[in-house]
Write a structure and sequence with these properties.
6-stranded mixed β-sheet; about 20% helix; 2 helices; about 170 residues; single chain; alpha+beta; 3-stranded antiparallel β-sheet; Immunoglobulin-like
Length: about 170
């Protein structure tokens, strides 16, 4: 009985640790460096950088979120509204194989339109099946332009002189 108890404890620990590994969703050797989590990018270009600290293959996909709202009326007069989010890849997912213990994958996505985007990095096993998935959301927006305070009207004295001087040197 004294020998069975430690063996049983060891088997229990091994079973529970394998269950924890099976439910891990993000690869500890892969991290999305850019863009930062839940950030807003004020550009029409989206730069995605992934750090890989182990020799493995990843697949990177960037998808734009679309929201569809549907309403339906029941016989009893109630109206039901349903919101569905769908994601459409903006390009074909690209694979990258790292052969070093530290590698970076970087890609610039050009001409992205304002909206919400989902970046998905999948770690692929030897059989090319997904082992881990790491995701990040980012919002692309248009930055509102404001007039520079130096060239705004309503200034007097020295500021007006400097403003006129700069305008003559550099133009409007």
């Amino acid at each position: 009985m004294k020998r069975i108890l430690p063996v049983l404890a060891l088997v229990l620990v091994l079973v529970l640790s394998s269950v924890l590994v099976a439910f891990a969703d993000a690869d500890p050797y892969v991290s999305i460096v850019n863009p930062s989590a839940d950030s807003t990018v004020y550009s029409s270009n989206l730069l995605v950088s992934v750090k890989v600290t182990k020799a493995e293959t990843i697949s990177v996909a960037v998808a734009k979120e679309s929201t569809v709202v549907t309403t339906s009326a029941a016989v009893d007069g109630t109206i039901e509204t349903k919101t569905t989010k769908t994601y459409t890849n903006i390009e074909t997912p690209e694979s990258f194989t790292s052969t070093n213990t530290l590698s970076y994958y970087t890609k610039k996505f050009e001409n992205v339109t304002p909206g919400n985007y989902l970046i998905t990095v999948s770690t692929l096993g030897k059989d090319k099946k997904v082992v881990y998935t790491t995701t990040r959301t980012v919002k692309v927006a248009v930055k509102e332009t404001t007039e520079s305070a130096v060239f705004s009207t309503g200034q007097s004295g020295t500021f007006t002189f400097l403003q006129n001087l700069l305008k003559t040197i550099f133009g409007d």
